[in-house]
Amino acid sequence: MGMGRSLAIALVGLNGHVIEVEADIGQTLPNFILLGLPDASLSEARERIRSAAQNSGIPLSRRKITVNLVPASLPKKGSGFDLAIVMAALDAAGDVRGTGRTVFIAELGLDGRLRPVRGILPAVIAGLAAGHAEFVVAKANLAEAQLVKGAKVRGYECLAEVAVDFGADPHDLPAVDREWVSGPEPGGTAQRQPHAQESVDLAEVAGQPIARLALEIAAAGGHHLMMVGPPGSGKTMLAERLPGLLPDLNDAESMEVTAIHSLEHSASNLVALIHRPPYERPHHSASTAAIIGGGSGIPRPGAASRAHRGVLFLDEAPEFDKRVLDALRQPLESGELVLHRSAGTAAYPARFQLVLAANPCPCGKATGKGVHCECTPMARRRYFGRLSGPLLDRVDIQLQVNKVQLSQLADTEPRESSAQVAERVKLARAVAGERLKPWGLVHNADLTGRILRGPLRLGGHDTALLDKAMGVGVLSARGYDRVLRLAWTVADLQGLERPGSDEVGLALTLRQRGEGL
């Protein structure tokens, strides 16, 4: 009887902390004490562990077992500590050995089966970054854990299998299948999700040449987009096709996006890296916690984080709660959401493209002369009043989308497909990436005012129209910079070395909901 040790991972947001699980068996009456700030689900591990060990043929000691989770000051939550705790207790009793260098991540069933848990991918990434390369997980989690290069992962079906491979006498245990599947060796290649056909295509959108151009510019430069128009004008169709214009994520981005989704999805569903930009479309009744993230205890990611490296589409944007809309201002600027709760602070990446769609008024009929609109002026002001000035100031493209005409619907001329436009977007992004490399930036939407008025400064003739708009109060300083960012994207799509007055004029028109070019 003595001390036993194993390792586990505590996730706070996407950040994982290695937890040393210490187990001590005393010489007093039977008891099981769990220390180290466990939450309710973790405190229940004591009964799960006893039953799982008993039903696996390796019952825990009948003396006092004290388990300490170090560091004790860090809150721990979830059932993923079960396997690490039982292995430390068995190590203390001398039933197994060699557990001190292995990270164990799995929930235990009462019959001893290992059950999958969420967040395996960020947990393995954190353990490997801390210098621990050996992991034991439930077999249902194995495919996801294998996505991390350099991690030696083993997946098991039940506790008895794990105990045998860590030195338990197989003659004392029920017959078990000791065949386990190992993860990739260091330097191995992670699987990638096969490229799926986009379910929607830009060729299906009739008419709307200006909106199609705006969508292409938004995709090429990573710009935020707002579309205002009557019901049925195609706003939702256009927004749904934006992800199809974006290029695949690189390996680092794929790992980041997959790690976020690992916290939300059933672990057995993630068997490959997510390499297509995600698309999130929350309902307008969604709460702040659902969009931004939150919940009891350590906050969980919301739709904004799940849309990281992809598109967050808010249809009927003025119908969203004003607090929800204003909460998006921070991630639009910083690309990150930091959520503070009493149980801890969690940081989630949230660098997404925001797409807003709105009707011109609550009834949607205030188009043209608006003779059929039944809304009062007060109702219209209240409707758009939920979209605050500071939020709209951060949206680069603000576009008026008009009704589709009958002649456009009947037009049989072939339209450009998403694949054709995506190829131009890819080329434009490559040009911008090469230009922005000295500053460590990727998209034109990331350009700062210091760079735009410094190394990338345009001549006075090119910005004359823009200077006039700011002089009469049409543009703020932030809006001025955002028009310049748009102008650089327009130039990249047209194959120009730098934007001129025409490109700046087009960018300004797209910024002001212009109906014509």
TrEMBL record:
Gene3D superfamilies reported in the protein's UniProt record: 3.30.230.10, P-loop containing nucleotide triphosphate hydrolases
Residue ranges of every copy of the AAA+ ATPase domain listed in the record: 221-405
GO molecular function, one term: ATP binding
One family name in Pfam for this protein: ChlI
PANTHER family linked: COMPETENCE PROTEIN COMM, MAGNESIUM-CHELATASE SUBUNIT CHLI
Family listed: Belongs to the Mg-chelatase subunits D/I family. ComM subfamily.
Database matches in NCBIfam families: YifB family Mg chelatase-like AAA ATPase (TIGR00368)
Protein name: Magnesium chelatase family protein
Species of the source: Arthrobacter alpinus
Organism lineage string: Bacteria, Bacillati, Actinomycetota, Actinomycetes, Micrococcales
